[in-house]
Specification:
The protein is globular. The chain has 3 helices and 3 strands, in the order E-H-E-H-E-H. With about 70 residues, the chain is of the alpha/beta class.
């Protein structure tokens, strides 16, 4: 299963990725983004099955990010 992590804190991304590798090795993190605007483009291009998304980010919160993604399955 392909996943993307979006968080404005690099420590949070690092920690989540470690937890995923330890407990859910079948999840392949194919993208990590600290910039929500870049994440929108990447998610639309990569089309991961799973997105780990921070809610409180500067510039665009997690709900706004979701609203900017077309064709969410």
């Amino acid at each position: 299963m392909r996943a993307v992590i979006v968080d404005d804190e690099s420590d949070a991304i690092f920690t989540l990725e470690l937890i995923l590798k330890e407990y859910w090795p079948e999840i392949d993190v194919v993208g990590k983004y600290m910039d929500p605007y870049k994440a929108v483009d990447a998610i639309q291009t990569i089309q991961p099955e799973l997105v780990f998304l921070d809610i409180n980010m500067p510039g665009m919160n997690g709900f706004e990010l979701l609203q900017n993604i077309k064709n969410i399955d």
